[in-house]
Design brief:
alpha+beta, OB fold (Dihydrolipoamide Acetyltransferase, E2P), four-stranded antiparallel beta sheet, 10 strands, about 25% helix, lipid metabolism, fatty acid biosynthesis, Biotin carboxyl carrier protein of acetyl-CoA carboxylase
């Protein structure tokens, strides 16, 4: 940002925050150029808790199933709710908002695949955030059981990326 703040910058940032809320967005990034060496780069984001968002959805699904006359139908719904990847003890959660990449560059082999053995600290994927490539290490040694994101997917803070057991 320039050394001298522009008077309209605060109003501009407030307008971006309002736009974020009005359109139910989670992140918005804008660069405003004023001159050759004078610009403003703004990123406005909301942190959402994925676990809290999943709980009401599970309750909404469980209510119609409970009303069903067959008691056997309630058992699969209960097991599906307990299989939420973010609740799994081996879930690797995203430490930031960004774009997930499963390989170092297009055309290269993926860091890991389902069934692969990983050691604690091995890079399992990359998350690009604000033009920075962040290597995400395996938090524990084990076997990759599930990969929950595709190459190029946008990820939120705390979202499950993969399961390592």
């Amino acid at each position: 940002m320039a050394k001298k703040p522009h008077e309209t910058d605060v109003e501009f940032i407030q307008a971006l925050a309002a736009l974020l809320n009005e359109n139910e967005l989670t992140e918005l990034q804008v660069k405003r150029d004023y001159g050759e060496n004078d610009s403003l780069n703004v990123r406005v984001s909301k942190q959402t808790n994925v676990v809290q968002a999943a709980a009401p959805a599970a309750a909404a699904v469980a209510a119609p199933v409970a009303a069903a006359p067959a008691p056997a139908a309630a058992a699969p719904a209960a097991s599906a709710a307990s299989e939420d990847p973010s609740d799994h003890p081996g879930a690797v959660a995203s430490p930031m908002v960004g774009t997930a990449y499963l390989q170092a560059e297009p055309g290269s082999p993926a860091f890991v695949s389902v069934g692969a053995q990983v050691n604690e600290g091995d890079t399992v994927l990359i998350i690009e955030a604000m033009k920075t490539m962040n290597h995400i290490p395996a938090p524990r040694s084990g076997t990759v059981k599930r990969i929950l994101v595709a190459d190029g997917d946008a990820v939120e803070f705390g979202a499950p990326l993969m399961i390592i057991e």
